[in-house]
Design a protein that fits this description.
The complex is a heteropentamer, with two copies of chain A, one copy of chain C and two copies of chain D. Chain A is about 80% helix and about 0% strand. Chain A is mainly α. In chain A, helix 1 runs antiparallel to helix 6, helix 1 runs parallel beside helix 8 and helix 6 packs antiparallel against helix 8. The mean pLDDT of chain A is about 85. Chain C contains 14 helices and ten strands. The longest helix of chain C is centred in the first third of the chain and has 17 residues. Chain D is α/β, with parallel strands linked by helices. Chain D contains 15 helices and 16 strands. In chain D, helix 3 runs parallel beside helix 6 and helix 4 crosses helix 6. The longest helix of chain D is centred in the last third of the chain and has 20 residues. The two termini of chain D are about 40 Å apart. The chains are: A mainly alpha, C alpha/beta, D alpha/beta. Chains in contact: A-B, A-C, A-D, B-C, B-E, D-E. Chains D and E meet through helix 6, helix 7, helix 14 and helix 15 of D and helix 6, helix 7, helix 14 and helix 15 of E. Bound molecules: adenosine-5'-triphosphate (2 copies) and magnesium ion (2 copies). The site of one magnesium ion has 4 residues of chain D, from helix 1. One magnesium ion binds next to helix 1 of chain D.
Chain lengths: ~220, ~220, ~280, ~375, ~375
Amino acid sequence: MNRRSLWEQIVQQLEMRHAELGMAVLQHIKLVAVSVGIAIVIGVTLGIAVSRFRRLEGPVIGTAGMLQTIPSLALLGFMIPLFGIGELPSIIALFLYSLLPIIRNTHTGIVSVDKSVIEAASGMGMTDTQILFRIQLPIAFPVIMAGVRTSTVINVGTATLAAFIGAGGLGDFIFLGISRSMDALVLIGAVPAALLALLLDFVLGRLERAVTPKGLKI
Amino acid sequence: MNRRSLWEQIVQQLEMRHAELGMAVLQHIKLVAVSVGIAIVIGVTLGIAVSRFRRLEGPVIGTAGMLQTIPSLALLGFMIPLFGIGELPSIIALFLYSLLPIIRNTHTGIVSVDKSVIEAASGMGMTDTQILFRIQLPIAFPVIMAGVRTSTVINVGTATLAAFIGAGGLGDFIFLGISRSMDALVLIGAVPAALLALLLDFVLGRLERAVTPKGLKI
Amino acid sequence: GGGGERNGGSEKAGKLTVGSKNFTENILLAHMMAILIEENMDIRVERKVNLGGSNVAWQALRNGDIQMYVDYSGTIVANYYQEETGNAEETLARAKELVERDNLKFLEPWGFNNTYTLAVKQDLADELGLETYSDLAKVSDRLVIGCEFEFLDRPDGLPGLKEVYGMTFADEKGMDAGLRYPSIGEGKVDVINAYATDGMLVVHQLKILQDDKSFFPPYHGAPLVRQDALERYPGLEALFNRLAGKLDDVTMQRLNAKVDAEGLKEEDVAREFLVELGLIEG
Amino acid sequence: MVVFDNVSKTYKNGFRSVKSLSFRVQRGEFLVLIGPSGCGKTTTLKMINRLIPHTEGTITVDGKDIAKQNVVELRRNIGYVIQQIGLFPHYTIEENIALVPALKGWDRKKIRQRVEELLHLVGLDPAVFARRYPKELSGGQQQRVGVARAMAADPELILMDEPFGALDPITREQLQDEFLRLQKEFRKTIIFVTHDMDEAIRMGDRIAILKDGELLQLDTPERLLTNPVHGFVEQFIGKNRIFQNPELLPVTEVMRSDPATISPHRSPERAISHMRQRHTDTLLCVDEQGRLLGIVSAYDLQGDAARIQSVGEIMQPADPILPLEATARDALVKISESRFGLIPVVDSQGKLTGVVTKGSLLTVLAGRWKEAEAGVGS
Amino acid sequence: MVVFDNVSKTYKNGFRSVKSLSFRVQRGEFLVLIGPSGCGKTTTLKMINRLIPHTEGTITVDGKDIAKQNVVELRRNIGYVIQQIGLFPHYTIEENIALVPALKGWDRKKIRQRVEELLHLVGLDPAVFARRYPKELSGGQQQRVGVARAMAADPELILMDEPFGALDPITREQLQDEFLRLQKEFRKTIIFVTHDMDEAIRMGDRIAILKDGELLQLDTPERLLTNPVHGFVEQFIGKNRIFQNPELLPVTEVMRSDPATISPHRSPERAISHMRQRHTDTLLCVDEQGRLLGIVSAYDLQGDAARIQSVGEIMQPADPILPLEATARDALVKISESRFGLIPVVDSQGKLTGVVTKGSLLTVLAGRWKEAEAGVGS
Ligand SMILES: Nc1ncnc2c1ncn2[C@@H]1O[C@H](COP(=O)(O)OP(=O)(O)OP(=O)(O)O)[C@@H](O)[C@H]1O
Ligand SMILES: Nc1ncnc2c1ncn2[C@@H]1O[C@H](COP(=O)(O)OP(=O)(O)OP(=O)(O)O)[C@@H](O)[C@H]1O
Ligand SMILES: [Mg+2]
Ligand SMILES: [Mg+2]
């Protein structure tokens, strides 16, 4: 069925669509950045809350988990009456999907901090909040970052679904390619998405290394 | 547009489809159990490898991350020529999607184990393998389990996509419901999926608690 | 199914897998094929309905994971083989010709033409006096269109429409097929692309506009079956041809709506229709 | 400042690690908790800052029941040196110490000064160590940082759990000295856990001996040493402790209280026969009130016996002499200066109460040594 | 067994924590490493089992260069007590101790027995502690488990980093005794880090004193005490150490080497004038070869002088006497038994070499005490 080689097709499609592709990449980054950004803030907060008030653990992590099980199409569908179509519902959906790894790793990271360090800190009269921000979060940082990085990478993949609801991004190319059986188009969308995931993970890794205090490095 | 109330619709659909629903739930569990099972074995192994040979970290975690970015439709599409449709390609895809949180948390968990404990262990002549299995893995267990639980819950959601490729499961109901705008059908698929996620998370949590040695509990 | 004895066991017991794409009509038709086989031949039928789109079904068929499903002439020509479509007869002939390359056979169409069309809400149509695509073109700069990705991109989709009718929409939103109806239902878009036989048109009380310049190619639906299956079960082709021409657009729309609007089970609707036609016993 | 009233701690597994503890620590007092491993010292300490909640009784700090106090408030004013050291691995040494002052809102310059001051105090050169991370320090260096950190915000009450356990004697002694100086100067109240009796004796105003969660004795080091109320206390103090710490032993313990005396008016003959009777070659001259006047020796007498009427004429001034409050250590140091090999001990009125001889000193010291030896096998 | 040849360690930040260390530890020897906090003791120890790689020189264990040996093999045969204790938090006490034997494939029953035996050895009741987790133990209890764990598989060479640092004196002494007994009985080679000089003296066959990464002196406790080669060593040992450890001081240091002697054939008159001359009231009788025969006292002489021809007739047997190898402690213990307030010291041929008197003892002991006092200010 391929009258042209895959490579020729890719070149042809890229010639035709390079401007759109640039836009799609930018749009994809925007979707990921905004949704993960919010997810970090909310997810870390919830993770903290859960590690502080143990009875919240079931409800919060359970809810975040249940959100993960809602297929994106269903979630997007439910959102149309509330938020319409386009960016907003996509970002909300992506945000909801990003929560679980961040919440769970924040929680696990915090409760794994060495007890004698916590004891020293509370023994010197630090409030729970101070212990949290100055001791637990910095020491739990690598574990939390593992959650954030997982979440971000998954999010780059999930963000292709924004195409379903008219929010653009690289998903436009991929799903178009799929529905038209044009592997070239799929690749034009999928390769930048994969590269974007690698790039974001790399940047977050650098950030992690830069922010992790020297004393915690191996 | 709904001439019957949502509740009536649900009742009607359940009456008509309860047998299929039961099958779908079992099928869903099978897909999740098999794919997560394999992902735990391979993911933990890779996580260990990555923490042992630090130069593997980039390639392995990068690859697992890139896999996450491939939209499920594209991944499933690529797999048809190789594995056809049905269970096998679904399980392979689900397995691939489950790797990242497990690999990453295994790695993070292992490298976070208290240095003086490792020093004591290696100082008494334990081989790296013995340290791994008797010291690092047990102590990293809560962090690894956080990854496994995240992965499992996400997997329950992703497994709905198996419907695309004829592997059945709860996705059949959800996607039919979506394409027909029948919330009742969506719910009949989504609610059991959510409950399944909760149940699996609960079971894994119990398992975690049962297996975590008393000395590590808070 | 258990109608094996009726044919006196002349056929050697075997297995066939019937597939379908992931929309109501295609699922209904798959069930019809399956029921016909079950009721008339001593063959076990497996249903792999609701596959994720044309592409999945098409690949599964060529792989041999399924032996048959219902496809459309325009889709075959334009989508799978990426050739120009012509009028109904040309397209059908071309489709039949093309699939032979892949050892498939496109059987006789069952009657309906599930072509693309454009739909707006009834009240908007009333308000703006919309009947035809040309009417729509005049006010299109004030309207937002929501459509499937492929429609947005295919030369025989929106780009061609814009050229032929001179439409210029205020915004074009590509989205998943399943989300078009809720989007227009909630007023987030004004116009959507639809299929002529969609049951959802009835549900959402949408008005189908007239393709007054006959822009869209024909999409006549017929079973697409693997050659090897036809050879192995010689009665098969004749069995399916019994339905040829029996399902016009209106009938198809009615059946689709039974599932989409009334929430009936696809298999039940299919069986009921076959009984109605007298092709199987009730 | 700190009052325990019938305080007990029962762990979840039913183990009672502290049993009905009652004691009172004055402001400015240095109390040492000591006892065998696992006797409940750490538990007692941690109950004060509520790191371990007590299960019975009441603890008050500064007159306020700690159970009813805001726990952060309570701890903010208590310095705490944890047994496991527990430095913050992600902070440099400097940041570890600066943390509480920073939380209390001190200004940067003051904090910087304080950190430098404290690092010097614990014997670590700020130029070398301030920017290192805990894992780059030796065990003893880490421990010292832990001490500096507890003192950073200048708390009134300091709880210290074996703070010098990992230090060599020189560093330890320097820190002990600095600490005592600071404590006396600023009247800090300190509760100090140690397992080292020497340290306890050196540092403590009072020492509490715990065993199996019970308080056996709480007393000043001197009274504890001379008056152990319990066999275990005695054993724990160590039989040869006194021998090693002659400054803790009152001179009255090493003197003979029946010195051979004579009135200065007596004749030399009388003196000689008295010496023979008492098996001694020196007599102490005293007046009617028993006040010490001088010393007469056999050698002097033998030479001059014919020439004189009364011993008073050849009596030598008694030097050195020791007051009643003197210690065995004073006696030890002075006995070699003594011409006669003995030192008279006089009370505040100058009255002779006893005499320390080489023999009496050695008898007591060696006697304790022999006891210790006998005790080893038991 | 362990040989250091010019070994140095330079950390990544350029800090040299161990400098050109060379020494040799014999099989069955107990070597103590001691020195101030941060001097490189832990570093030295960890270089032996390659937990810290040395950057220069060679270390051999059992004749093999450790750098060329399989590291697991090497460590498997070396017991190691880590300074931070480092118990495995997820294992019970029992499991912590049983781990290495289990890895070595011992059978269950043997392991069980060994665990019980070791827990008893370190003074923890297996019934109470075997099933607890580390966090449920006090600091000292955890430390003891660490010691038991290192010994579990009965290694030939044991490295111990401040293993008794958190223990009270009684528990510590018990463990020290047990350890010495075991070491002598099974000829273990032990390298032991401590900061406690008493412990070093008590335990070590030889003691190595480190400072700033350099080896200042490596010697037996006796030679170290009497012959410190370096001002710092002397300071570190502590001036009053001898006074506290009379068993370390040879009797020759506290005796007078010019005892007043007399031949048993001499007349009583001659003896009395000799006594007066020497300011003493006892004379030691010796034969022509200088062998000790007995003691003559002034009191005995005064009574019997007229009745006898030679002092030999009233000479008393000399008891107690001390051999040359005796210590000041022996002298201290025996002096009070002595009727005459002195103890003759004889060599192996019975020849008189000196005499210990109360005066000579006190002079030496008090003299050191005074030195110590003078030293405090410096
Ligand atoms: N990772 C490191 N980087 C730089 N210097 C280090 C590092 N680890 C230790 N040091 C330094 O090396 C020196 C020796 O450390 P070591 O742990 O051997 O001391 P130590 O003799 O065991 O002291 P202590 O009795 O206090 O335990 C110390 O001054 C310490 O500060
Ligand atoms: N969580 C716990 N559960 C049960 N028993 C405990 C727990 N924590 C401590 N104990 C026990 O309580 C007793 C007192 O412990 P504590 O830590 O106060 O001892 P300590 O006097 O500080 O000893 P050390 O000098 O060894 O540090 C010990 O016997 C210990 O085993
Ligand atoms: Mg303690
Ligand atoms: Mg050390």
